[in-house]
Amino acid sequence: MSFMLRRVYQGLMFKPDSLHVHPLIGILIILIQFGFMVVNINWVLALLVIIVIFENIFFKNIKGALSILYALIPAIVILGAITYVFGGWILVFRVLSRLLIGGLGFSLFFTLTNPSDLTRFFENMRINSKIALIPSLALIMIPRIARDAEDTFTTLRLRGEMKGGFFRWLPKVLAILIASIIYRSEFLAQSLYFKGFGIQKRTHYRSVRFALNDLFRVLVWLLFIALFVTFYCLNKANILNFPLIFI
Q1: Which of 23, 122, 168, 236 could potentially form a cystine with 164 if both were Cys, beta carbons 3.0 to 4.6 Å apart?
Q2: Number of structural domains, the chain?
């Protein structure tokens, strides 16, 4: 458990020194990924996996992607075994490819999206600041809560308090984790207060702008959508028929 939490923290933590992308582009790409994950077509899922891996390499999120993959190993093994028993290798591919797309896609989004830029973007879209802050808090708090949980497990294990049944040490872990969340929320409230949160009209020291990185991602995903529409239409018209393994 401690190993998984540490990997989740490393894979979802925003990196200020990395290349950044516009929040709008990041959100749209996440929606596209999850939209095409519903499509039960093998070659689409395979292409999605390739694109997501390519993006993680291009934006130098290799360490974060590997951390997420390490954290997903137990889920991959368990789901792989269950789906193989009930559906064979084709079902294993479909389930695990969706798991990889979701994990690597979220890792890239959390790593490249500045939480402050996300809040500014929603506020510029005339969304109430109290609502606009929720996604930003998720980007900030989820990795830190995972780190706090990992520190809790490590501390209790070093003290020898992780012995016995599951329900013997679980209340201790939950109590420490809840106390940590309350402690962080106090500092978070102070930070929001000094930033003028709740004021009707807020100002920002810089604006959120599109960059070449955003254009590159848009072109990649537009190409993917064009390939999907082209091959799908050709296949439906019996002009180009894929083998059974690809459909």
Answers
A1: 168
A2: 1
Host domain of residue 131: 2-196+207-246
Is residue 201 assigned to a domain? no
Per-residue 3-state assignment (H helix, E strand, C coil) for the chain: CHHHHHHHHHHHCCCCCCCCCCHHHHHHHHHHHHHHHCCCCHHHHHHHHHHHHHHHHHCCCHHHHHHHHHHHHHHHHHHHHHHHHHHHHHHHHHHHHHHHHHHHHHHHHHHHCCHHHHHHHHHHCCCCHHHHHHHHHHHHHHHHHHHHHHHHHHHHHHCCCCCCCHHHHHHHHHHHHHHHHHHHHHHHHHHHHHCCCCCCCCCCCCCCCCCHHHHHHHHHHHHHHHHHHHHHHHHHCCCCCCCHHHC
The pair of three-digit structure tokens given for residue 100, joined into one six-digit string: 């990889």
Q: Going by C-beta distance under 8 Å and a sequence separation of 6 or more, which residues neighbour residue 39?
A: 45
Whether 92 contacts 75, CB under 8 Å: no
Q: For residue 170, tell me if it sits in a domain.
A: yes
In a domain, 215, yes or no: yes
**pLDDT digits over 168-213, tens only?**
667 777 777 777 777 777 767 776 666 666 665 666 656 677 888 8
pLDDT bucket at 244, cuts 50 / 70 / 90: very low
Residue 202 forms part of a structural domain: no
For residue 26, how many other CB atoms are within 10 A of its CB?
Answer: 23
73's CB contacts (< 8 A; 6+ apart) are: none
Query: Are residues 141 and 184 in contact, defined by beta-carbon separation less than 8 angstroms?
Result: yes
